[in-house]
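Input sequence (420 aa), recorded before submission:
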Amino acid sequence: MPLFSVGVNHKTAPVEIRERVAFAPARLQEALRELTAQPGVHEAAILSTCNRTELYCHADGPDVSVISAWLARHHQLAPDAILPYLYTFDDQSAVRHMLRVASGLDSMVLGEPQILGQIKVAYKDAQEAGTVGALLSRLFQHTFAAAKQVRTDTAIGASPVSVAFAAVTLAKQIFADLPSRTALLIGAGETIELVARHLHESGIGRMIVANRTVDRAHALASEFNGYAIALSEMPAHLSEADIVISSTASQLPILGKGSVESALKARKHRPMFMVDIAVPRDIEPEVGGLADVYLYTVDDLQEVIQESLKSRKAAAAQAEEIIDTQVTHFMGWLQSLSAVSTIRAYRSEAERTRDEEIANARRLLAQGRDPEQVMYLLARSLTNKLTHAPCIQMKQAGFEGRTELLLAARELFELKDTDS
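Predicted structure, token format:
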């Protein structure tokens, strides 16, 4: 199988498993080079988000189980620990899966647009690591074009539904008086930017953005009249927050039970609403057991998200039709690659014959032969040599009754029926 994908997502694995197989951005290129060092793997790309980890490979030998075992080994897990949660696709089904993912049809939030940007980042990482070649590059470019067509030709993205939107919707259900509330946003990536935008549009009273890079936090906070702090300053400001929404790339929790207990004491146990969108999780699960804390993970947002999906169902059906067409186009290109060597050999043989006949014609001209006669001899000899092998094969096919070859020859050479 030249193409295949292996992965887990929000449908097949709980957050406890997804966070264990997530790839840290800082180590992603190292992992890509390690993956392409596996026997038979020529190209590879890794998509790692809060809702999925997927490996896309071009290979000509290894069983998918070899790649699954590498995934477990890379994360220091026993293969049996992740095997029940894995899915695999090969060839056409792998192409279809990638196009559906990029179009938001496989997302927790149907039609969400963030996944396309994440796939573009995955492609860029693989390019920088030197692990994509002609086949995967073509697949990624085809995927981007198909996802753009889905966005343009359907209403899949018409309503503002996303994990960020769902988190803010839930916050508004818990706190009806949003203009009098303070939100602490941890991280400064695309998801947190969307959260900030939705909170701002909903009239949040005050916004604090905490990030490891203060300049990035300041850039985001200033856009929405917020206040930027470093992560190290977060404990001093936690008690101010009614709403805490976190999405960072940290491999370890950055908000523990002790810090939240201290904040609740300072707040005199006024309730706090927390959403942990990150995978691996940013907030220790034990925080959810505290009184006066409402802690949600990405999996908990499913019910809120489902309510917002109704307007996208018809658009999803249209999108599937577009993807069917685009999969056919890509597989046609992929299958055409098998003809390349045959075409190259045919052209090479024809050019060799041409060069021989031109050389022979030049010798005749040098001997003083009539140019008109030399041109005639050149054309006749070239025609005879180019048609000799096909004619022999067609005569043999006729003798053996292989009509399918004769019909193929008529199609190949675009021959018209001369019997009439």
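Checked by second reader. The CA atoms of residues 2 and 135 lie 9 Å apart.
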